[in-house]
């Protein structure tokens, strides 16, 4: 059991050390200027939803439900981001001040719980979104996911070949 705790603490600590830059750089929810993330044009939830609405040919009622669902969770998402930011900051300060391992493990465990909650919330949002779709739209969404996964795998293979040269 101690090995599991050490592994879990180490994983959470590693995550804590790699992710805070994004949280601190974009404290408003992961969106930089004009909602962009990084150098590839980035992720913007509103644009993604518009794209999905167009590709899936959503009805006005479905679009309204999708927007209502998004707005309903806005405050909770903001609170979760702020809590994540606070724990990252606490962990950074603890490391810089030379805190003991038990303190670091406690913060890492808290961070891990927050990450799990975030994943659960994202899953709930996915299920909620899919619940407003027709069977035909669900099939189209699955097709879009498969195409996206294929594009990702192709880029990954290209990157690996380039890396190995």
TrEMBL record:
Ranges for region Disordered: 144-165
Signal peptide span: 1-25
Annotated transmembrane regions: none
Chain segments annotated as coiled-coil in the UniProt record: 49-124
Entry keywords, A to Z: Coiled coil, Periplasm, Signal
Pfam families noted in UniProt: LTXXQ (PF07813)
Compartments in which it is found: Periplasm
Principal location: periplasm
Family: Belongs to the CpxP/Spy family.
Protein name (database record): Spy/CpxP family protein refolding chaperone
Higher taxonomy: Bacteria, Pseudomonadati, Pseudomonadota, Gammaproteobacteria, Cellvibrionales
